[in-house]
Fold this sequence. Notes:
Blueprint: E1 10-13, E2 20-21, E3 30-31, E4 34-35, E5 53-54, H1 60-68, E6 76-77, E7 94-95, E8 98-99, E9 106-108, E10 114-119
Antiparallel strand pairs: 1-2, 1-10, 3-4, 5-6, 7-8, 9-10
Amino acid sequence: MPIHTCTGAQMMCMMGMAPSVFNATPKNVLTSFKPAGNIMDNKPFMNIPPFGMCQSPSNPTVAAATAAALGVLTPMPCVPMTPAPWAPGSSTLLVAGMPALNNTSTLACAWGGVIKIVNPGQFTEMIP
């Protein structure tokens, strides 16, 4: 069964070079005494900090640096671009009126990366 995700969860982007820590938007809902996440906690920097360096050739700064290096892939600082919500989220539990975020949800970055939950931040509350 999926595990409810909260502030402090560890995430990884397949195009990033370092893990990052999720920060749920404050709500009046806690899971294991930490702010609970929902699928709309997808804002770059506010909820989704950078993942170190980005390796995606779709990222304009990486593409420019790679062109300047005569075709040698040149990673550049990560700037998450996450316009869509996490998917799929919980089918039965709402947090602040939106589906709860669980450890099986993923988040797409416009630069081609997919962000996954590596550690949900707590392990006692499971959600369907």
